[in-house]
UniProtKB/TrEMBL annotation, chain B:
Family listed: Belongs to the PhnJ family.
InterPro entries assigned to the protein according to its UniProt record, in alphabetical order: PhnJ
GO biological process entries: organic phosphonate catabolic process
EC number, as in UniProt: 4.7.1.1
One protein family per Pfam: PhnJ
Keyword S-adenosyl-L-methionine: yes
Reported function: Catalyzes the breakage of the C-P bond in alpha-D-ribose 1-methylphosphonate 5-phosphate (PRPn) forming alpha-D-ribose.
Tree of life domain: Bacteria
Coiled-coil zones: none
Keywords: 4Fe-4S, Iron, Iron-sulfur, Lyase, Metal-binding, S-adenosyl-L-methionine
Protein name stated in the entry: Alpha-D-ribose 1-methylphosphonate 5-phosphate C-P lyase
C-alpha cells in the first residue's frame, strides 16, 4: 500500500473533483426542465453550458446552485470537511455555503445587487456576512475590488442605480468575488449588454478567471463567451446534454448534429 | 373609579392570556419577536396600541402606573394612555419613576435607574431591525433563525460611508445575549446602555406589526458597531439649564422669537426631582419657580 502511494502515479493522480453531478433531473409538471445531467468539475476549471433558449440551462444552473430543488440526482461538492451532497444539506448549511464557498452572478444585475446600498456596501456585504467588523479594512477591500473590475474608486459611495448596465454587472462580479469563493455560478453574465460592453466584460472576466484560478460554471447562449472563458463545454438541447468535451474540440469538431448547427451559426439564438 | 362596562384594563381575559403567553415566550427567548393577535384598541395605530395591550395584560389592581412620551408625563399621548388605564383599570398613577411598578414609554428610558420588580413597556412602531435593507418578511425571519446578521452591519457601513460616523441616533440596533438582533424602539442611542443588565423586566409591543419581544432582567444587550468605529452613546455637550444635570439626555427648546435656546432634561420627572433636591442649572432660577 505504502509503496503504491509513494509511486509516481500517486503523485500525478488528480485531486477529487470540486463538484460531481449525477443523474440530475428537474421537471415542471410534465415539461422537462433538464434531465439526467451528469458531469465532474475539477478545481480551477471553467465549464460552459450552451444551448438555445429553453434548452434547460438556467434550470440546471439553479438546481446546481441550490436555488431550485431537482426531482432526482446528487450535487456533491468538495467542502473543506470532505465531499457532501449539497441537495441533502440542511437549509442553514446550504445558505452558509452560498455566502462563503459559492457565488452566483445573475444575468440581471438588479437581481444580484442591493440597489439601495452604495457600491462599497454592496461589495462589503459578503465580508460582513462572514464576520468582518473593521470598517477601514472593509472599505479597503471594496476599493481594491472596484479597481479590479475597472470602476473608479471615486464611485464607491454611489448607488448602483447611478451606474450603467455594464458597470452594474462589473459591480455584481466584484461583490461576488470579494470573499474568494471556490465556485462561481454565472447565468448569462454578458446577456442584456451592448456588444461593445460585452467585449470589455469578457476581457475582464477572462483576466479574473486566470488570475484567481477560478472554478466556474457559466451558462450562455453566446459561443464567443465560452470560446474565451470555458475549458470545457456542455451542449444542451431540450433538457438533455447532447455533447460535452474540451471547448476547442467541441467547437472545432462537433459530433452531435445539434452542436454542428450551433457552431455553424445556422441556429442563431 | 373603574368604568364597569369594561373588563379590568379593557381587554377580556382570553385576550390577556393570549398576550401573556406571547410575553412569556418573549421572556424565554430574549430579543425574539413573538407574533401575537393584536386587538383593535380605542386609539389609532401609532399611539402605542402594542404597548397598551402589553400593559393591559400585565396590570394588576395594586399596580402604580407611569406613562411617558419622549420622557415627559404631560404630553397628549402619555396623558391619554394614563387616563385610559385610570378609567378601565382604576390603577393608581404616578409621575415618579421610583414609585411606579409599570412604566409605559415611547422614545425614552427613564434616567433614574430602574429596580427589580418594575416593568418597562415600550411602544414599538417597527419591530424588525432588518426591514431597512430587506423588506421581505419571509427572508428576515429566516435571517433571524439562521443568525445571518451581516446586513445589519451593511446598514452601519452605509452610515459611516455617508456621514463619516455611525449617524443612526435612534432605534440603534442591538444584539441580545449574543443571539438575536433587536430594534430597541426609537429610543435615542444615549439610552442603549440602560437596556443592558437592567434589574427591571423590559417588554416591547408593536400593535400594527403584531409583535411582542422582551428583555428579562439582567440580560446582556450590546449595541452593534465596528472595531474602528465603536458605539458611542453621545449626548449634547451641555448641562441641563434647569437642574444642571450633566449626565441626562437633553431636549433643545427654543425660548423666544430671537432664537434663544435652552437645553433641558427630556425626563421631566428626573429634572423636577433634582430641582426639588436643590440642584440649579444655568437658567434654573427663572424656570425653577414654576415647577
Ligand atoms: N418556472 C417554470 N415553470 C414551468 N416551466 C419552466 C419554468 N422555468 C423554465 N421552464 C421550462 O423549462 C425549460 C427550460 O427552461 P430554462 O431552464 O429557462 O432554459 P434556458 O435557460 O436554456 O433558456 C423550458 O421549456 C421552459 O419553458
Ligand atoms: Mg436562461
Amino acid at each position: 500500500m505504502q509503496a503504491t502511494e509513494m509511486s509516481i502515479f500517486a503523485k500525478v493522480k488528480p485531486q477529487a473533483p470540486l463538484l460531481s453531478v449525477k443523474g440530475l433531473s428537474k421537471r415542471y409538471g410534465t415539461r422537462i426542465g433538464c434531465t439526467d445531467v451528469a458531469f465532474d468539475l475539477w478545481p480551477g476549471e471553467v465549464l460552459g453550458i450552451v444551448g438555445e433558449s429553453g434548452s434547460g440551462k438556467s434550470t440546471l444552473l439553479s438546481c446546481l446552485a441550490g436555488h431550485l430543488a431537482p426531482d432526482t440526482g446528487e450535487v456533491v461538492f468538495a467542502t473543506a470537511s470532505g465531499p457532501r451532497d449539497t441537495l441533502r444539506m440542511t437549509e442553514p448549511e446550504r445558505r452558509r455555503l452560498a455566502r462563503t464557498d459559492w457565488a452566483f452572478v445573475h444575468q440581471n444585475p438588479r437581481d444580484g445587487l442591493r440597489m439601495g446600498v452604495t457600491a462599497g456596501g454592496n461589495v462589503g456585504e459578503r465580508l460582513m456576512a462572514v464576520g468582518a467588523r473593521n470598517y477601514g479594512s472593509i472599505r479597503d477591500a471594496a476599493t481594491d475590488w472596484l479597481g479590479r473590475v475597472e470602476i473608479d474608486a471615486s464611485r464607491i459611495d454611489d448607488r448602483p442605480s447611478a451606474f450603467s448596465g455594464g458597470m452594474q454587472q462589473r459591480l455584481q462580479i466584484a461583490r461576488n468575488l470579494v470573499t474568494g469563493p471556490r465556485l462561481v455560478f454565472m447565468d448569462e453574465p454578458t446577456g442584456g449588454l451592448d456588444v461593445s460592453v460585452q467585449a470589455r466584460l469578457l476581457d475582464l472576466l477572462r483576466g479574473l478567471v486566470r488570475e484567481m484560478g477560478l472554478s466556474a460554471i457559466i451558462v450562455t447562449h453566446d459561443l464567443a463567451v465560452v470560446r474565451l472563458l470555458a475549458d470545457r463545454l456542455m451542449v444542451m438541447k431540450s433538457g438533455h446534454v447532447v455533447e460535452q468535451g474540451l471547448t476547442d474540440q467541441v467547437l472545432d469538431d462537433p459530433q452531435h448534429a445539434y452542436t454542428q448547427l450551433l457552431v455553424s451559426s445556422v441556429l442563431q439564438v | 373609579m373603574t368604568d364597569q362596562s369594561y373588563n379590568f384594563a379593557y381587554l377580556d381575559e382570553q385576550t390577556k392570556r393570549m398576550i401573556r403567553r406571547a410575553i412569556l415566550k418573549g421572556v424565554a427567548v430574549p430579543g425574539y419577536q413573538v407574533p401575537f393577535a393584536s386587538r383593535e384598541m380605542p386609539m389609532p395605530y401609532g399611539w402605542g396600541t402594542g404597548g397598551v395591550q402589553v400593559t393591559a395584560a400585565c396590570l394588576v389592581p395594586e399596580d402604580v402606573l407611569k406613562v411617558i412620551d419622549q420622557g415627559a408625563d404631560d404630553t397628549t399621548n402619555a396623558v391619554s394612555i394614563r387616563k385610559f388605564f385610570q378609567r378601565t383599570a382604576g390603577v393608581a398613577t404616578t409621575e415618579a419613576t421610583a414609585e411606579a411598578t409599570v412604566i409605559q414609554t415611547r422614545h425614552r428610558i427613564p434616567e433614574q435607574a430602574l429596580t427589580a420588580g418594575q416593568i418597562l413597556v415600550y411602544q414599538v412602531p417597527i419591530p424588525e431591525p432588518l426591514r431597512f435593507l430587506e423588506p421581505r418578511e419571509t427572508e428576515t425571519r429566516k435571517m433571524h433563525s439562521l443568525e445571518e446578521y451581516g446586513l445589519m452591519h451593511v446598514k452601519l457601513y452605509e452610515d459611516i460611508a455617508r456621514h463619516g460616523s455611525i449617524a443612526t441616533a435612534y432605534a440603534y440596533p442591538v444584539r441580545v445575549e449574543g443571539r438575536y438582533v433587536m430594534d430597541p424602539s426609537p429610543i435615542p442611542k444615549f439610552d442603549n446602555p440602560k437596556l443592558s443588565d437592567s434589574p427591571a423586566l423590559q417588554l416591547f409591543g408593536a400593535g400594527r406589526e403584531q409583535r411582542i419581544y422582551a428583555l428579562p432582567p439582567f440580560t446582556r444587550v450590546v449595541s452593534l458597531d465596528f472595531d474602528d468605529h465603536p458605539f458611542d452613546p453621545s449626548k449634547a455637550p451641555h448641562d441641563c439649564d434647569l437642574c444642571g444635570a450633566a449626565e441626562s439626555y437633553l431636549d433643545e427648546v427654543i425660548t423666544d422669537d430671537a432664537g434663544s435656546r435652552m437645553f433641558v432634561c427630556s425626563d421631566t420627572d428626573f429634572c423636577r426631582s433634582r430641582r426639588e433636591a436643590g440642584h440649579v442649572g444655568r437658567l434654573g432660577e427663572t424656570a425653577g419657580g414654576g415647577a
